[in-house]
Amino acid sequence: MSDDERRDDDWFESAVQSEPEDDTDADDTEREESTDAERDDGPFEDADGDSPFGDAGGDSPFGDAGGDSPFGDAGGDSPFEDAGGDSPFDESGGDGLFDDDFASAFESAGDPGGGGGADFEDEDFDSDIPRIDVGIDGLDRMIQGGIPRRHLLVTIGSAGTGKTTFGLQFLHHGLQNGESCVFITLEQSHEAIMDTADDRGWGFEEYEAEGRLAVIDLDPVEMANSLDNIRGELPDLIEDFGADRLVLDSVSLLEMMYDKPSKRRTEVFDFTRSLKDAGVTTMLTSEANEDNPYASRYGVIEYLTDGVFILQYVRSETRETRLAVEIQKIRNANHSRETKPYEITMDGISVYQQANIF
Fold it and tell me: In terms of CB atoms within 10 Å, which end of the chain has fewer, N or C?
């Protein structure tokens, strides 16, 4: 073997055994990393529109049994770590029986019967992950292959953008495909939700009679007061009902029950974790921030979810107003990052995936 060939064979061994030639350079590197780490401290910034959880550079304190964080992005980073590396979200430790009204709503439901788009990213996601469609024409074509099952999603929008319709349509699609679904509303009555679905011909009364749909109306104050019980019992009740999809409309009303931001973050974090433990594909709705249509009302829920849909009004220079949808993120799924117009009709929401805003 020639000297050149011997040097080629030894490149890997030499690389892993090599050390910095200059201790001064190594010290400079350590100081730079230390400075970067200091800039990453402080998970709870003020209310100027910045993230209350800092940037995404910290390691996650919330590893599951496999060591993976349920709240990291595709790179495994977590937005939840304070300067000491400790989690600001301690268990509330709430035990006890479930709220009677909530449990009876499940029991009364009976036994279950059983794209083109541009700007796609991350082409090599695992195709073996079970996936489902949202059920909104045009929007599903913006998501290549569908959203992963058991993901936690949120739809953020201001008043009148169709958040409730979005959630109902999400459930209707599942019901049409033989799934069992749960709709929890903190804003409207059971009757109002059933009437809305009936006006669109979605047959919710029939699905409810078959035991495949539970529509539960809760007072947000009562839910906040009994959230420890709900959080503890929800996974078992969802499993007993056999729910495949769940919608909570809206998480903003639950968030506003807590005056202290730290209490709000803790309660909402624990609640979303219980939904993940339940193993159900969940869609939350949230009011948009008054100053930023791309953020939720309190700037918390979008950091706890796997997918974010933004519904907003878009106005042109001529003051023409249209509704537009954008997919802010979906973990483990390819999706378009374009903003597309949509309409709310008696058939539900339709996204014009081939059209432009103006």
Answer: N
Q: For residue 26, what pLDDT is reported?
A: 45
Amino acid at 250: S
Phi, psi torsion values for 204, nearest 5 degrees: -65, -35
Tokens read off for 27 = 């010290």
Q: pLDDT tens for residues 265-286? A: 999 999 999 998 899 999 999 9
- CA triple 55-308-61, angle to 5 deg: 40
Please state, in angstroms and rounded to a whole number, the distance separating the CA atoms of residues 134 and 284: 13
Is omega for the bond preceding 250 within 30 degrees of 0, making it cis? yes
User: Which residues make Cβ contacts (< 8 Å) with residue 17, sequence separation at least 6?
Assistant: none
From the list 188, 152, 3, 132, the residue with the least C-alpha distance to 71 is 152
Q: What is the pLDDT of residue 145?
A: 85
End-to-end CA distance of the chain: give it in Å, rounded: 68
CATH assignment, 100-351: 3.40.50.300
Q: Which of 137, 138, 143 is nearest to 120 (CA)?
A: 143
pLDDT of residue 255: 95
Structural domain spans, the chain: 50-88, 100-351
Residue 196 CB partners (closer than 8 Å, separation 6+):
164, 165, 168, 188
Helical H runs in the chain?
A: 3-9, 11-17, 23-39, 100-108, 139-142, 163-176, 190-199, 204-209, 220-225, 227-241, 251-255, 261-278
Query: Contact 280/153 with Cβ under 8 angstroms?
Result: no
Identify whether the C-beta of residue 167 lies closer than 8 Å to the C-beta of residue 283.
yes
Q: Which amino acid is at 137?
A: D
